[in-house]
TrEMBL record:
It comes from the Bacteria. Keywords: Kinase, Transferase. InterPro entries: ATPase_NBD, ROK, WH-like_DNA-bd_sf, WH_DNA-bd_sf. The keyword Ligase does not apply. Pfam families: HTH_24, ROK. The keyword Transferase applies. Belongs to the ROK (NagC/XylR) family. This is Sugar kinase of the NBD/HSP70 family, may contain an N-terminal HTH domain.
């Protein structure tokens, strides 16, 4: 029986499209509050250009004037801040056993959330129906649904981010080849993106946690094990958008069979450790694989997240940190900072919303390396 379409009103407001506006908006976001003079200095744009861009952002409601700098000899300067209520995004974390739906404001701060007891164990169409109901429910909490920019959906990979089509997600044959983005966009009638849960979590971390560096690896340990790579402030997905299959690196040629068909994948070894009631060993295995990652990509910052990590975060962090310290040959030179996700609750759903918000702040150019 066809499922009735209930389209959302939204995405009619102008988005930031040009490079310089995104540059200015990103500086406002990163600084919290910033003056026009500082924006000119930070972007290299003329005072006249900044005035024009800021006037447009003010007219669109994306920034507001709020407060003044303390006088430092010269006259006080008016500060600009993001207006959180100017835009909203919906983030959906579609997981194997359940689904989380959040509504975030422009700053990726969650303002409403719903948890659904069904996840990808349901048929794709049933799952989408439940998600659509939850999306309508969270949108009822804002006064104007035209401020919705779009819906981001994060789910286990492998998947094609460009087309939004799922591939062979382990243990979920009904979803193999399912055009999730097209079907979801058809239901919602607003821009929709689909990405791996690990990428969404990494992006959410970079947008919502203050002080997150421009380069880091996010290790996500849930029922599966994935990694999100943020390089130069942007998610690195690879040519086929399938980078970060961290859990399927082969650690033991004679190890247990993995559902992917190979033997001794990290994920299979971790699952065996967890089933044996030894989460510390699972964390040490992840720490060992993290050393491989650091030696390949020279990350100096790693973030840990996902349900297995958050079940006992301090112990997981300690095991991973100790393992990295023990296995890296020159830990004092190749120092690695490991932290727990800053956005603990609903981090992946918030990251899914960030998939929609990120283009507002994306200049299309990775920041230049400092020298
Ligand atoms: Zn595998």
């Amino acid at each position: 029986m066809p499922v009735p379409v209930r389209r959302l009103a939204g995405a009619n407001l102008p988005l930031v499209r040009d490079h310089n506006s995104a540059l200015v908006l990103d500086l406002v976001r990163r600084n919290g509050a910033i003056s026009r003079v500082e924006l000119a200095a930070g972007t290299g744009l003329s005072a006249q250009a900044i005035t024009k861009i800021v006037n447009r952002l003010l007219a669109d409601g994306l920034v507001t004037e709020a407060g003044r700098t303390g006088a430092t000899g010269g006259k006080p300067r008016t500060l600009l801040r993001l207006e959180p209520t100017a835009r909203y995004a919906v983030g959906v974390h579609l997981d194997r056993a359940d689904t989380t739906v959040v509504l975030t404001d422009l700053t990726a701060h969650p303002v409403a959330r719903r948890r659904l007891p069904q996840g990808m164990a349901a048929t794709p169409e049933d799952a989408l129906t439940a998600i659509a109901d939850a999306v309508h429910s969270v949108l009822a909490e804002i006064p104007d649904t035209r401020r919705l920019v779009g819906v981001g959906i994060a789910c286990p990979g492998p998947l094609d981010h460009t087309t939004g089509i799922l591939h062979r997600v382990t243990g979920l044959p009904a979803w193999d080849g399912f055009p999730l983005r097209a079907r979801a966009a058809g239901r919602f009638g607003v821009p929709t993106v689909v990405d791996k849960d690990s990428n969404a979590a990494a992006l959410g971390e970079s947008l919502s946690a203050a002080g997150t560096p421009d380069d880091f690896g996010y290790l996500y340990h849930g029922q599966g094990l994935g990694a999100g790579f943020v390089l130069g402030g942007r998610v690195y997905r690879g040519r086929r958008t399938n980078a970060g299959e961290f859990g399927h690196q082969i650690m033991d040629l004679d190890g247990p069979r993995c559902p992917c068909g190979n033997r001794g994948c990290l994920e299979a070894l971790c699952r065996a450790a967890l089933e044996a009631g030894d989460p510390a060993r699972a964390a040490r295995l992840v720490g060992t694989a993290a050393v491989n990652l650091v030696r390949l990509l020279d990350f100096e910052h790693l973030v840990l997240g996902g349900p297995v990590v958050l079940a006992d975060p301090e112990r997981y962090l300690r095991e991973v940190t100790t393992t990295i310290g023990a296995l890296l040959p020159e830990p004092t030179w190749q120092r690695v900072t490991v932290t727990l996700t800053g956005a603990r609750a609903d981090a992946t759903a918030v990251g899914a919303a960030a998939l929609i918000l990120a283009p507002l702040f994306d200049t299309g150019v990775a920041p230049a390396a400092s020298c």
